[in-house]
Amino acid sequence: MAAATPHSPPPQLSSPFLEYITAPGGLDKVVLRGRRSCSVEIRLFGGQVTSWKNDHGEELLFVSSKAIKPPKPFRGGIPICFPQGNLEQHGFARNRLWAIDDNPPPLPVNPAIKAFVDLILKPSEDDLKMWPHSFEFRLRIALGAGGDLSLTSRIRNTNTDGRPFSYTFAYHTYFSVSDISEVRVEGLETMDYLDNMKGKERFTEQGDAIVFESEVDKVYLAAPSKVAIIDHDMRRTFVVTKEGLPDAVVWNPWDKKAKAMQDFGDLEYKHMLCVEPAAVEKPITLKPGEEWKGRLGLSAVPSSYCSGQLDPLKVLHG
Ligand SMILES: O=P(O)(O)OC[C@H]1O[C@@H](O)[C@H](O)[C@@H](O)[C@@H]1O
Fold first, then answer.
1. Preceding omega of 277 cis (within 30 degrees of 0)
2. Which residues bind substrate per the record (predicted)?
3. Catalytic residue among 133, 172, 186, 268
4. I need a labelling partner for 22 at 20 to 30 A (CA). Which of 65, 210, 245, 280 fits?
């Protein structure tokens, strides 16, 4: 079956692990269901994960109470930032309608993963006027048996005029945290970063772990493949893994910027943190026919977490 277009009727997703929910105004969504109350919700608008719940049904991602409906990008969850460059902030993929990809090219899967969905985005005529490159962007979103979430992006250059293209990319992940002042990020200490608040000047991080006392907007360069977000009050640690994405953006707008953002509550900065696996410093270049792959893995584990121990299996099993 060919990939559904945005105007085709809802696809019949025949699996007890998947549900397709139709809603007006570009708000159709797919729900992935795992064991007990684990679930993931994905909006076709933006190809955006808007909810990820653990087996107690607790929400793990932040979504603003002031998030605006399409065609505006949606504040929270996991917006996909592509293709960035001299375009609208964070690129246009996050405010386009994606389609279900009924026939994705094979992707190695863990047989234990039953709940997944494949989405696809291709540029429209208008997109091509703005960014004159033909591409196929395939996104697989999977909910693992233990409640972990993974997003795999495959971007292919389908230009027929022989031209390469370059882009930057980010999984703009909004984590829900109890209180930003009590949160620590481990794995980025001693890393070099570009400070977006200081004209992208380069610095080296000092100290044992990253804590938050004011606005932060940094791009950590050549960041490790595993980063932990430790939420003391929730007794929860998020473990973020990344492949094919050298950098990691860390962002919290803090109070002043929060007030200036129309789609964000004045005090919501206290309950969110963005840690965004990304390719920012060096754009990715694809020749026609070439494909790039970038993967994000998320797990939420109880904070019997020991400092410096970034292996989630060790965290879970001692
Ligand atoms: O408001 P937007 O476009 O979603 O961006 C939010 C933030 O996203 C972060 O990734 C950027 O580093 C910040 O500079 C930016 O302010």
1. no
2. 75, 89, 94
3. 172
4. 65
| pLDDT, tens only, 18-54 | 999 999 877 999 999 999 999 999 999 999 999 999 9
Beta bridge partners, 284, equal 167
DSSP lists the bridge partners of residue 35 as none
Question: 148: Cβ below 6 Å to ligand 1?
Answer: no
| Residue 95 in tokens | 């405010």
Q: Is the Cβ–Cβ distance between 286 and 155 less than 8 Å?
A: yes
% of the chain surpassing 90 pLDDT: 81
Give the start-to-end residue ranges of the domains of the chain: 18-304
Instruction: State the distance from the centre of ligand 1 to the C-alpha of 99, rounded, in angstroms.
Output: 25
Task: State the amino acid at position 71 in one-letter form.
Answer: P
> How much of the chain is in helix, strand and coil states, percent to nearest 5?
10, 40, 50
Note whether 64 and 265 are within 8 A (CB): yes
Q: Which CATH number fits domain 18-304: 2.40.280.10, 3.20.20.100, 3.40.50.1010, 2.70.98.10?
A: 2.70.98.10
Which of ligand 1's atoms lies nearest the C-alpha of 257?
16
Q: What is the DSSP string of 194-210?
A: EEGGGTTEEEE--SSSE
Q: How far is the CA of 145 from the centre of ligand 1 (A)?
A: 32
pLDDT digits (tens, 9 = 90+) for 192-229: 999 999 999 999 999 889 999 999 999 999 999 999 99
